[in-house]
Design goal:
By secondary structure, the chain is an all-alpha fold. It is built from two helices and no strands.
């Protein structure tokens, strides 16, 4: 089978996981107030 919809769905989920994770790392972890809350 040339195109497996299950593998396409997994690839799409991985893409969104990394995209959301990257957004959180860049915008949430860069915020000093969040860092103070996490490490207090």
């Amino acid at each position: 089978m040339l195109f497996d919809p299950r593998s396409a769905a997994i690839a799409r989920a991985q893409f969104w996981f990394y995209r959301i994770g990257g957004y959180l790392l860049l915008n949430v972890m860069d915020e000093p107030a969040w860092l103070a809350l996490i490490f207090c």
